[in-house]
Structure formats: structure tokens, C-alpha cells
């Protein structure tokens, strides 16, 4: 992999590209007048991150792309502002002021909705194990502008940490978050979801493990939440009770009461 810019970059884009390349430990390549095809051939690399005035974009030699966009979070927040329930918020009993640990940031939509739900008094810490996804989504959450101040505030308030939840959870004190949330990559992604198809080539494919669930139960005060395929068998394997089911996915929960789990 390498980092480059769009044609005719400004000082800001050049600085961002060099800093990003340094943080990822990959080369920065001057774009000059070369096409991406030329750059792939010249460097022998198969993936690139392109820093532009409009944002950062990952692209590979096959043309697969990944870039940040709030996606369905904008519509979900719009519905919540009308008093309509959101499945994630309702399933976890999320409230204003809650501290939420999102263990699988991905595209960031659920973290954004959670950030809106917990409000200014709450906090969302979002983990992402894959460095490229973490870098692009973190930058997008900081810089993507909409005409809705509630959505902008929710994005800016999220703390993104590039870390594997398997190790991060072990370092967390008991009951240090109200809610711990997992949304691992489905073995079979939803074909109708362009966002998921865009994410899949660079996402972490590892399934959720029992040790991490036990750590999450220790860390959570209120609930541990899992989003998975309804017939995946993961809810039963990991001890979650399905509380809401849709056609393509379901929500499972392990609720906490007085420090003890009641799955």
C-alpha cells in the first residue's frame, strides 16, 4: 500500500498525505501527472489511499473503493428526532449520559447513532482493528459536514481508537462502560448494502469469540449487545438472547442487573 494525493494538491492535502503515510508505515508517493494505473505499476503496490480536498479514499488495483459517509445514520437520527425508536438504542436500553464502547466501528453508522442517543453528557468510544478503516473513518467523523448540527455534533463527539477489542477489553476496569456493542462482519454480507460490500474487502473477518464476550460482560454496567444474522447460530453459541429481529439481521443482548448478567 502507499498514500498519494489527487492532482494539484494544496499544502493541506500534502501535509495530510505525508502524515497519514507515516502513521500507517507506508510510502508517500508524489502524484504528479500519473494515473492510478501508472502509480500501481510504478510502485508494484496493489492498494492506495488518495488524499483529496473532499476527503480520503482507499482504492485497490481492482477498483474496489472505501471512503467515509454517514450512510443510514442520518436517516435514523432524523427518525429519532421525531420520537421514533431505533433498534440499537431500544435493544440496549441506551439513554442520555451513557458511556458506550463500540467494539466494531466499521463504517461508523451505529457509533454515530449511539453518540446522538447518549447526547453531550454521554460518550462513545469506538474501536477498529483495521488501520486503514480506523484512519479513514476517524478523519471522516472529524471533517464530514452536513447541514444538520445534531448529526455533525454526534460525529465529532466519537472517540476512535485503532485497537483490537480482544486486547482492549482486557485492559478496561470492571463496569467502566454502560453498554458494550459488537457488530462483527457477517460471514455473508447483505448484498443490497453498497456500504457493506465496500467495507468487506478490508474489514476484519474474525468471528466474535467467547472470551471477548466474557470480558464485555465484566466491563458493561447495563448490557452487552450483538448484531448478527438471525440464523447464524452466533446468538446461541455466545449466550445472547434475541430481542429484535429483522429480515437481514437481529439484535441479541446480555443484560446486567446489579453487576450480574442475566442472558
Automatic annotation (TrEMBL):
GO terms for molecular function: rRNA (guanine-N2-)-methyltransferase activity. The keyword Nucleus does not apply. InterPro entries: 16SrRNA_methylTrfase_J, SAM-dependent_MTases_sf. Keywords: Methyltransferase, Transferase. Gene3D superfamilies: Vaccinia Virus protein VP39 (3.40.50.150). Coiled coil: none annotated. It comes from the Bacteria. This is Class I SAM-dependent methyltransferase. It comes from Paenactinomyces guangxiensis. The lineage of its organism: Bacteria, Bacillati, Bacillota, Bacilli, Bacillales.
Amino acid at each position: 500500500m502507499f498514500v498519494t494525493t489527487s492532482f494539484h494538491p494544496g499544502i493541506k492535502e500534502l501535509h495530510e498525505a505525508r502524515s497519514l503515510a507515516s502513521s500507517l508505515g507506508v510510502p508517500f508517493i508524489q502524484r504528479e501527472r500519473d494515473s492510478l494505473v501508472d502509480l500501481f505499476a510504478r510502485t508494484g503496490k496493489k492498494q492506495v489511499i488518495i488524499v483529496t480536498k473532499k476527503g480520503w479514499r482507499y482504492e485497490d488495483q481492482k477498483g474496489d473503493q472505501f471512503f467515509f459517509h454517514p450512510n443510514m445514520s442520518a436517516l435514523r437520527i432524523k427518525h429519532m428526532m421525531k420520537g421514533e425508536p431505533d433498534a440499537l438504542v431500544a435493544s440496549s436500553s441506551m439513554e442520555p449520559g451513557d458511556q458506550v464502547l463500540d467494539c466494531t466501528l466499521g463504517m461508523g453508522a451505529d457509533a454515530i447513532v449511539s453518540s446522538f442517543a447518549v447526547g453531550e453528557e454521554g460518550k462513545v468510544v469506538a474501536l477498529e482493528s483495521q488501520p486503514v478503516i480506523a484512519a479513514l473513518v476517524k478523519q471522516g467523523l472529524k471533517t464530514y459536514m452536513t447541514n444538520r448540527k445534531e448529526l455533525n455534533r454526534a460525529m465529532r463527539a466519537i472517540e476512535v481508537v485503532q485497537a483490537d477489542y480482544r486486547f482492549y477489553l482486557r485492559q478496561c476496569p470492571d463496569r467502566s462502560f454502560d453498554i458494550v456493542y459488537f457488530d462483527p462482519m457477517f460471514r455473508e454480507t447483505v448484498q443490497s448494502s453498497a456500504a457493506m460490500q465496500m467495507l468487506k474487502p478490508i474489514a476484519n473477518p474474525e468471528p466474535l469469540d467467547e472470551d471477548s464476550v466474557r470480558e464485555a460482560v465484566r466491563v458493561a454496567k447495563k448490557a452487552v449487545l450483538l448484531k448478527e444474522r438471525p440464523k447464524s447460530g452466533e446468538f446461541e453459541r455466545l449466550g445472547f438472547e434475541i430481542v429484535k429481529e429483522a429480515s437481514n439481521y437481529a439484535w441479541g443482548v446480555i443484560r446486567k442487573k446489579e453487576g450480574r448478567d442475566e442472558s
